[in-house]
From TrEMBL:
<protein>
    <submittedName>
        <fullName>Ester cyclase</fullName>
    </submittedName>
</protein>
<dbReference type="InterPro" id="IPR009959">
    <property type="entry name" value="Cyclase_SnoaL-like"/>
</dbReference>
<dbReference type="InterPro" id="IPR032710">
    <property type="entry name" value="NTF2-like_dom_sf"/>
</dbReference>
<dbReference type="Pfam" id="PF07366">
    <property type="entry name" value="SnoaL"/>
</dbReference>
<dbReference type="GO" id="GO:0030638">
    <property type="term" value="P:polyketide metabolic process"/>
</dbReference>
Amino acid sequence: VPPSGKPVEFAVMDLTRYRDGLMFERWSLADALTLLQQTGALG
C-alpha cells in the first residue's frame, strides 16, 4: 500500500503485570483490522 499522508486512528490496549515491584509480564493488542481498513489494505 503506498503512503497516503493521511492520519489513521486505531485502538491499542496494553496489559502489564508486576511481581515484587518488577515488570513480570506485558501483553499488547492493536486493532489491526481498523488500521488495515483505514489504509485501504483490504481493498
